[in-house]
Write a structure and sequence with these properties.
Length: 266
């Protein structure tokens, strides 16, 4: 049985400036996006993406992640807390980012980018889909360092069960690490391999939606449910699990609609 190390959330202090681990994880995510984007463009030159375009994509994506992720956390998961502490809404460096909100923010940003450049929404999302999971992994590691989003109590013996002393003395699943491994590293490997060859338009985007929805839905069984605006809903499923349902449906529909269209350079 393990005990959470209770890391200092501040990684580095330079006078009045404090650099937090959670912020560093976002920096890692953005750097990986840039590096992997360049590698993806080199192995798929027919897509026509240039380093400058990838840098522009990153800027759009950063805004979508931060704005959408924070609004999703505020509106979907902790509205009562932020209503009582409105100044905390801007304190993104302390943690508290919703994937589903960030996902919607990124979709809006990619639509705007595609519209302004003429590349088209699906060409953009098919290109970035394999670049996203490593950022998700970095974010989950940030959650673990912050000691937030801990897992459900373990039923039985589990060698890697972890006690979070500020919560209680119950051994729990380190669900942050499960998610980093699943929707982060595993999903990255699957998408990176799948996107190595030309696929029908929308197929890579659809595969991301399906893969994330399945892996997140499964991970929620090991994670203490977020309170959400609805709490635990019907069938004993969490808010996040129900939010995965339309993601899965959209991915399945896109994948089915793309069959028979032939492979493209997406």
């Amino acid at each position: 049985m393990l005990i959470h190390p209770q890391f200092d959330p501040v990684a580095l202090s330079l006078g009045p400036l404090s650099v937090r681990w959670y912020g560093l994880m976002y920096l890692v995510a953005f750097v990986l996006f840039m590096l992997l984007g360049r590698a993806h463009a080199r192995r798929r030159p027919e897509t026509g993406w240039t380093p400058q375009q990838i840098d522009d994509l990153l800027m759009y994506g950063m805004l979508g992640v931060v704005i959408g992720g924070r609004l999703g956390e505020v509106l979907f998961f902790q509205p009562a807390y932020y209503l009582a502490h409105p100044a905390e809404i801007l304190a993104v460096w302390k943690g508290g980012m919703s994937f589903h909100g960030g996902f919607l923010g990124v979709l809006a940003a990619m639509w705007l980018y595609g519209r302004r450049t003429g590349k088209g929404f699906w060409a953009v999302t098919d290109f970035i889909a394999p670049l996203v999971p490593t950022g998700l992994a970095a974010g989950r590691i940030g959650n673990f360092i912050n000691g937030e989003l801990w897992g459900r109590p373990v039923d039985g013996d589990l060698p890697w069960a972890m006690i979070y002393p500020w919560v209680d003395n119950l051994p729990r699943h380190p669900s942050q690490l499960y998610q980093a491994a699943g929707e982060g590293l595993l999903l990255f490997v699957l998408l990176w391999l799948y996107a190595a060859k030309p696929r029908p338009a929308r197929a890579v985007s659809a595969t991301f939606l399906l893969g994330y929805a399945i892996l997140r839905f499964a991970a929620e069984f090991f994670r203490t449910p977020d309170p959400g605006i609805f709490g635990v809903l019907s069938l004993g499923l969490s808010t996040a699990q129900w939010l995965c349902v339309p993601m899965f449906a959209a991915g399945a529909w896109l994948l089915a609609a793309g069959r028979g269209t032939g492979a493209g350079a997406r």
